[in-house]
Amino acid sequence: MFIKFKDRGLSPLFIIVSIIIACIVLPSVFIFVRLIHPPTQAWQHIKEFVLLDYIKNSLILVLGTSVVAGILGVFFAWSVSRYSWRWNGVLEILLFLPMAIPPYIAGYVYGGIFTPFGTLDRILDRLNITPIRIDILSMGGAIFVFGIFLMPYVMLVTKGFFERMPKNIEESSLLLGKTPTQTFFRVILPMARGALVGGIVLVMLEVLNDFGLVEYFGIKTFSTAIYTTWFGLSDVDSAIRLAASLMSLVIIILLIEQFFRGRGKLSQPRAVADRGKKRKASRGYTLIFYGVTSLYIAVAVVIPMLQLLWWSLIAKQTSVMRRFVSIMANTLFVGVLVTVFVIISGILIGNLHRLKPGFLSKIYSRIVILGYSIPASIIAIAVFVSFVALDRSLAGIYNTLGLKSLFLSGSVIVLVFALTIRFMAIGYNNIESGFSKMGKNYYEASKLLGRGEWQTFYYVDYPMLKPALVSAAILTFVDVIKELPLTLILRPFNFDTLATRVFTYAGDEMIHEASVYSLLIVGVSMIALIILMRIKNGVKHD
User: Fold this and answer.
1) pTM
2) Phi then psi for 83, rounded to 5 degrees?
């Protein structure tokens, strides 16, 4: 079959990649097909009474979090990229570590600290101080948690921009009589708007994707509405319409990002050679930096970790570890399987983009990246609906083989498939970056020397691509372990992972038991993040 396609100018690589892309796109097509169905009575009720609240709450949450994460992210990115600090490397790692703590776990921690008779009340009671009442389970509390723990996304993007910015731009402004503060706000910040918007959009997408924190805090957003409509009302059509409304919001955000990035093209730095050495900060700025950084690390790393450790020690006397082995096995099984699929797909699509650059391969690479922009609840509905349709079309084969009617949609296959679509972009971005650095020269030299495709990949491409593959594998694996909404919606009956077990315990007010599994997620994520940063720093220094 491949020989026939090859005669028509279609390589086996192109055909395999086209099949992968079709698998990614088809579930979304089913969503649009189902939108044609007439609306149900439940949808009329949602549209009339609660849809406006979902939109309003989602927008307030997204905008409030963007402001907090944006201000903190720019401050830290500018400080660590322009000034030299004692223990600079350690400081950077500590500032990135909150990325390893999922917002829903941070929400459980701060919920437990500030609720009546929580940790803060007990400490103040021992000190004979009147309890302080802070309503953390509110919109303001959610913005605080999201902003603090999603800040590294903004810092990651803007720090890269500041490090590439030529030093002479800043020096020219100072020579023209502007103060450092005026230079930053009138010259540096406007130039960095493209990178800043890129980082903030990542934060917005993470907020819209979240389910665990908003559910625990009792805030009605699109994620909670989709879950309630699907499982509470058993109304898939209304859930699809909510998903389509959420998708419209995501598209508007992505269009705004493209608009600002387009306007920022002229302001991108054109040279990276003269970045200059990091300078020493003034005494006043040093005090502000160390004060803000110490407070941030205490709030975002030290307090959550100490609280989780304390609760875990309390929980050790319970039967919390009864199903630990099966839960850990499920988590590792899904994490490893999805990571393998993402890496293989990323290699195939990235290799096609390198060897056959053209309009179609460029479209393919954009489709892969778009998967991460789509909130998990939308992917869950799209994949579930398409798998149900597939199950119905295979009903005759199931009857012959004696299988249940929803064999695929009721199995772990649907979960692995959806997670692969969701996190394909993370793996692909790293692999595509590795391929672009390699170029085609070594590949062509190997082919001229008579090596086949597989030999060329194994002996030439793979050794050079290895750091990118390791980075892609680590990031994908960690994100799969942390993922909650998609796993919660699509998991088979009685199939628990670390994330779903945390959610179940927290929902049952068993916060001590939830902390054991939370600590495992955070611990694994932190170790992986530190390894990843060391790999990246090693590559940078090479």
Assistant:
1) 0.84
2) -115, 150
